[in-house]
TrEMBL record:
One of its GO terms (biological process) is DNA transposition. It comes from Acidiphilium cryptum (strain JF-5). InterPro entries: Transposase_11 (IPR002559). This is Transposase, IS4 family. Pfam families: DDE_Tnp_1 (PF01609). One of its GO terms (molecular function) is transposase activity. Residues 2-123 form the Transposase IS4-like domain.
Amino acid sequence: MTTKILALTDALGNLVRFRLMPGNRYDSIEVPPLIDNVEFGGLIADKAFDSNALVAELNERGARIVISQHPARALKLKIDHETYKWRHLIENFFCKLKEFKRIALRACKTDQSFQPMIHLAAAVINSR
């Protein structure tokens, strides 16, 4: 069994929130609880998060949508490609997170012990 980490970072690439989810679950399903009660001006994400429900919620919030489009999308959304380049910050965060062996190898057996390890690693990353 695999585990996915769905993370929300700020504009500097620092962890704001995260959720653990099973590896066989669609990423976009856990986004609404992740962004609940968080104010932001825009969301940058890859095509795994391209869903009509998420786009509708972001439009309702007035947030800028910078999500890479799934090739099968009928109505293409116009995205700012210069802003999309900043997605590398979340990728950099995950690369730094995977430097911690306990996280990369999922050494903790339960979610209750794995979540604090992610918080601790994020604090160390933020302090660098």
